[in-house]
């Protein structure tokens, strides 16, 4: 009996051994004689029974019914979903703002080299194209000295101009040359556009072969009635560039009816029209915008300010930034507009903003902070316009106008909608905005009145309160 008991104890010790860490390891014999589940033959036999066959068929039918149902649902959703409108064809000058540097020497002490050094700054402003010059050689009121294919020595050389073009293209900025012949005098065409039309035609062909992206002509009415005009136009239609080159022009002081006819007659790619004179009625401005918009593609409409009115008390800079960036067409600004420079102020002021002002000069410090805030507002609007389809190429709907105020809607298909409201008067105004697309409230995106119209806050659209010399940009989602 003792031998048997010892063997049993030894076997137990084999099954249970103590590990170094104090744990007990149990070894389970492999052949214990236990049986788990069904064997292969038993499984095959069970699978062939009537119950399991019916179950498998039922699951298979349910699977295919579910699959067909999901497919049908997807088809119904696709068929019933609203169709997205095709994106209209746009050119490079419709994708952002144009920036005019009329006086290259005033813009930079280094002339054309200095403009090249400021390309990073222009990129930050989201500039899509520069309208440069005029920079050709001519003596005021002396057509015999006109040479449209030369660069005046005060601003640089032709090699420096081509270098500027190359570097600008690398940053996605196009360059348009202003070839207005007699640019130093009020009569840009020597009172006889026909006399210099042939030189204009030759200069257009010359500079376009150099890779420039377009030509700009001031006082377009004078040259557009010349019999030379069709021969100038054909140059732009025959270029081999993969990127479209633009024939641009501007008019000043013309009634809207004449501007309308000139757009039809001249066939220019972009006609720059002055707008936003504080002395004009908002109602007349609304009519002018509507007439030009309804009769022409907005890709051919350009908007600028009359003279240097941006920084004047009658026309706060941010108010007109809001207006020009949200109109249907291309906003065109002159150098210095982004900080609200007044007439007669030096462009060097823009670059002085990067230098800190002494704390003891409180007035200068406050002025600098104000101009930096205006520039930040300009950048925010420029960035918004470049991203939002409703602002890029959306429809324009007039909502409200009075003697001193204006409001309109921009909308595109299923994209977010935008409402622009400006009041350049000396009194507050309550705008009653009505349209089938409008909600009861909209969100403030940008505002010149942070106290009453704070960004991201919701405001009433039915009765929009706007203080004197204030502007606001509102948005709301596609209503579905």
TrEMBL record:
Which GO terms fall under molecular function for this chain's record?
aromatic amino acid transmembrane transporter activity; L-alanine transmembrane transporter activity; L-leucine transmembrane transporter activity
Q: Does the keyword Transmembrane helix apply?
A: yes
List the keywords (alphabetical).
Answer: Membrane, Transmembrane, Transmembrane helix
User: What Pfam families does the annotation carry?
Assistant: Alpha-amylase, SLC3A2_N
Instruction: Look up and give the organism this protein is from.
Output: Phoxinus phoxinus (Eurasian minnow)
Q: Where are the transmembrane segments?
A: 57-79
Q: Which Gene Ontology cellular component annotation is one that this UniProt entry carries?
A: basolateral plasma membrane
List the InterPro entries hit by this protein, alphabetically: GH (IPR017853), GH13_cat_dom (IPR006047), Glyco_hydro_b (IPR013780), SLC3A2 (IPR042280), SLC3A2_N (IPR031984)
- What's an example GO BP annotation here? phenylalanine transport
Q: What is the name listed in the Swiss-Prot or TrEMBL entry for this protein? A: Glycosyl hydrolase family 13 catalytic domain-containing protein
